[in-house]
Amino acid sequence: MKARVTITPKRAVLDPQGKAVQNALEHMGYSGIAAVHVGKYLEIEFASGDTPQIRQKLDEACRRILSNPVIEDYSLVIDES
Amino acid sequence: MKARVTITPKRAVLDPQGKAVQNALEHMGYSGIAAVHVGKYLEIEFASGDTPQIRQKLDEACRRILSNPVIEDYSLVIDES
Question: What is the DSSP code string of A32-57?
């Protein structure tokens, strides 16, 4: 089982890293960009299969450890395999 | 138009950040984790719609600027809207 976690800054929060990437891209000739948001991506592989218990613990870990819920949103996608 | 870019370390490359997250999760009582990989996530918003030209420039930007193709893989997903 594999979980994919995407953590992005909330829209209301300043994203200086995204702004820096946007400026760099424009500076290098890539025009027409309205906004860039930079976040984190985690792939977590589990030895066991998908269970409601693992899913619940993973959601808790995302909220408590992997993201900062004050300034970040996360999305959790679980791949069955 | 919005493009979502996910940049992950290649499997053959050491991922100390992923290992650190794995150790931290195990230390905090989340067991059964086989591996963690940490990457970057970018959302790029365009003022204009999707065109083959933008798509090609974006792919080039991913390869040349946003990722390091020696040690990283990237995946590019374009949301039509």
Answer: -EEEEEEEEEEEEEESS---HHHHHH
